[in-house]
Description:
This protein is mainly alpha-helical and 251 residues long. Helix 1 (3-27) crosses helix 4 (108-130). It is built from eight helices and no strands. It starts with a helix and ends with a helix.
Amino acid sequence: MPMWLQAGGWGLLAGAALIVGAAVGFGVRVPPRWIAAITAFGSGVLISALAFELMEQAYRRGGFVPAAGGFLGGAIAFTVISVLLNRHGAKHRKRSHGQPSASDDAGSGLAIAAGALLDGIPESIVIGVSLLQGGNVSMVAVIAIFISNLPEGLSSVVGMKKAGRSAKYIFSVWIGIAVASGLAAGLGYVGFAGMSPGVIAATTTVAAGAMLAMLADTMIPEAFESAHDFAGLITVIGFLTSFALSKVFGG
């Protein structure tokens, strides 16, 4: 199987967790505190993967300057685009409440979809780029992104339902994001094949910076708002889980 197709398959697999989370959120009434707990766990998992898998590997591959520059650049780019989308109704796109309905803001549906795409693409690019490092996908990254995508889909769909979004809109968004995740992973592999270690390191950390900014802006506030006293502990458990995975798969 061609490597770009393998990359796309891994990206699609990680993105499919959004659909699973969306299906659970749409069909089952999940208590807000459970949603918050799952979100906190997913946040911890992704933070650990960023620290021990993405940043560390990028530093070893390209050095401090490309890693740090990409990390800050990714966070800045995500923040600027996110602010623009938030002004058009995407501010609470991953929350289980507070999303505007179509009647409140006619353009909010498109903004929410664009915001969800913005959140998911950096993760997928990381998966594709990881295949350039020895021809093996980063299983830690795939597992961490899959785990974190479950609460993202779950929480966001609960908010979409409360805002009166139709099932057709909801599942069109998440199926589209999952497919886009696969395409982004494949393009990440093809687009950066043959690039220098510094460029690959910077690309990895651009995605990492965007992912950490996304966590701080969307997932962690959602987790704390409902889980309160236990949000920190659950996040730590998620972090430790991902750290353990990095030792199992990373050696």
